[in-house]
Structure prediction request, 158 residues.
Amino acid sequence: MNDAEKQAIYAQLLANCQALTAGETDEIALMATLVCEIHQALPYSHWTGFYRVTEPRLLKVGPYQGGHGCLQISFDRGVCGKAANDKAVQRVDDVNSLPYHIACSSSTLSEIVLPVLDDTGEVRAVLDLDSNDPAAFSAVDEQGLQALLALLAPAFKH
Prediction:
C-alpha cells in the first residue's frame, strides 16, 4: 500500500473515530473503539492493540484485535517496553534484527509502537501494531496513529 492510499485511509479513520468517540472519557471504551477501527481499516496490521501501564514500569495487554498478545511486558523488554521507557515511537522494519524483540507471534515481521502520554507527560499505555509484512509501517502510519491517539486525551487528564 502506498503512502497516498494510507493517507486517505487515515483521513477517513480519524473522521470515523472522532464521530464514534465524541464526548467519551472512559479510557477502555476509547481504546477499544480505536483498536477496532484501526484494525479493520489497516489490512497490513495483523495485531492491533494497547498495552496499559498497570503498575510502575509494567504494561499489561489491554483492548486488542488479532491473535493472543503477550499478557505483560516490562519497560525493559521488547519494542513495547522500549517505546514506554523512552517515551518515543518505535518503528521497526524487521523485528528479527532486534535482539530484544519479544515474539508474541512468530509471523510478525514488522511493528510500530507509539507511547500514550497523559497530560503530565507520564506513559499510560502504548499502541502496538504488528504486521506479517516486512517494513509495513511508514511515517504516514506514525502521523496517522498519533492523530488518532490524540482522541484519548479526555481519558488521561488529571
Observations:
- The first helix runs from residue 3 to 21.
